[in-house]
Structures are given as C-alpha cells and as structure tokens.
Amino acid sequence: AKRKPQGQIVTYKPIMRAELQRRLMIEAELGKAIDQCGVIPYYQPQFDLKTGEISALEALARWHHPDLGWVSPAEFIPVAESSGDIVPLGRLILETACTEVQLVSDSLPVSVNLSVSQIFNDDVCGMVRECLARTGLPAHRLKLEVTESVFMTDIDHVYETLQTLSDFGVEISLDDFGTGYSALSYLSRFKWSELKIDRSFVNQAFKNDLTLEIIAMMLALARKMDAGVVVEGVETIEQRDLFASLGCEFGQGYLFGGPMSIEDIALLFFDTEAA
Ligand code: C2E
Ligand code: CA
Ligand code: CA
Ligand code: CA
C-alpha cells in the first residue's frame, strides 16, 4: 500500500484484515459447529391476519460461537453456500425443525429455507423424503421456501426438483417474491403453494402509490394461482391493517414476534413446555 493518505492506511487496512479474518474464522468454525449441532433453528411465527391466530413457523438458522458471538445467517449462509457446508447445515436445520414443530403442535406447519446450492449439490428430494420418514412429520406440514434466484441457472432441473418435492405432498413457497429475477414466466410453470411478499414492499407501501398497485397485483396473481400469501417484515399496526385490508391472508414480522427458541414458541403460543 502507498504511504501518502495516512488516514486511509490507518483505518481502511485493519478493517479489511479484520473482515477477512472473521470470514476465514467463520469458514473454519462452521463445519465443526454443524457436526456438534451448534447451529440451531429459531422459529418466527406467522399469523392469520383475519383471526390473529398463529398459522405457521419459519425456521431460521442461528449460530452462537464462543469467540465470534452470534453470527447472523446473512453472514454464514453465503459462506456455507460457497464452502459446501450448506448441505449438512440444511439437513440439520430441516431435521431439527421437523422434529421440534411436533413438540408444540400436531397441526402447525413449519417452513424451512432451501438454498440454490442444495438444489444443485445434493439429492435434496431423497434428503427431504428420508427426513419426513425419520421424524414422522406429515409432508403437508412442511413448506420449503425458495427464492427467485433458483431460476438463474438450469431451470429445468429446478422445476423437476420442485415438482418431485411437491409430489411428496410438501408445499413450495416462493420467498422474497418481487425482489429477484424479474421474469414472471416461472409463476406459471409450477403450482406454488405460497408467495411471500418481501418486506421491501411493506416499507414502500405507504410512500408510493405505485407500490400499492404492485402489491394489489401480486395478491390478485396469488388468488388466480390459488396460492397463499404471507407478507414479511410487518413492524407496525398500520402495515398489518393495510395488508389485511388488501386481502393478504398471513403476516410475519417484529410486530407479532421475531425468531425465538422452540421453548419460547411453546410458552408464548401454546401455553406448554416443549418437552
Ligand atoms: P428470509 O428467509 O427472508 O428470512 C426473513 C428474515 O427477516 C430473517 O432474518 C428474520 O429474522 C428477518 N425479519 C423477520 N421479521 C422482520 C421484521 O419485522 N423486520 C425486519 N427488518 N426483519 C425481519 P435472519 O434470521 O437474519 O435470516 C436472514 C436470511 O438468511 C433469511 O432471509 C434466509 O434467506 C437466510 N437463512 C436463514 N436461515 C436459513 C437456513 O436455515 N437455510 C438457508 N438456506 N437460508 C437461511
Ligand atoms: Ca424465508
Ligand atoms: Ca423472505
Ligand atoms: Ca430475504
């Protein structure tokens, strides 16, 4: 590095080094954590906007490392995707979620996020089928969430995989709807169970009339497709009421509750202890 602009050298370089060190550390530690089941799902509840009843749980991976502290999935999922650890990580989260949801309820569905690299690097269909058999969770209680980014490559393989999973009876949910790959053709090539409206639309809904039109269009599309709709990132009563009045069925967000342990789900929503 050059000497001259002193401020830059002093501040910029150590930050880069710290970031790089953190990433290397995450990469080195994540595999071990997965082996020891140190990555666990937390669960964020979803609610029926009409009745206010809990309607599903979304499993979100959580990792606490003795030195690194809590590492966000926004940080370790991309690392896991590039290192290949996403395959055992995905299996661990899926298996734990299918087991734990049955501790709190005998009807509530659970959603698990599926990453693109699981679809391409793993026998994901075999894995899901075995997991359902091992845990005894009925297939219709499992929802697998994929984002539009799965359609970036080898579309036929993606449809085939989603169709096989769907044939098991598993529900397939389109996550972060409206933010990714913008061709709408994939909506018609597969029978989606559910669309999840990304939270960026929630923020914009009150600021911009066109956004409201887009949301109304998404809801109309979902109705045509006979798919459920979940709005994500609901933080205020105004947002909840707006989406309810537009006919959106389900909501998820900090207004209702953030991701929490299965013990807290049991206590808060089922008035029992997860045994
Ligand atoms: P996502 O699937 O879109 O999950 C929703 C994210 O929004 C979660 O972040 C959740 O904590 C956060 N969130 C929920 N309600 C609100 C709200 O009202 N306001 C705001 N601002 N945020 C809210 P989280 O848990 O940090 O997960 C981030 C992303 O990491 C997820 O986004 C998902 O793409 C990925 N991820 C998490 N767990 C897994 C996993 O087990 N497997 C895979 N493949 N990806 C995962
Ligand atoms: Ca999700
Ligand atoms: Ca989402
Ligand atoms: Ca997201």
From TrEMBL:
Signal peptide bounds: none
Source organism, top-level taxon: Bacteria
Domain EAL stretches: 23-273
GO MF annotation terms: cyclic-guanylate-specific phosphodiesterase activity
Keywords: Membrane, Transmembrane, Transmembrane helix
Protein name per Swiss-Prot or TrEMBL: Diguanylate cyclase/phosphodiesterase
Annotated source species: Roseibium aquae
Organism taxonomic ancestry: Bacteria, Pseudomonadati, Pseudomonadota, Alphaproteobacteria, Hyphomicrobiales
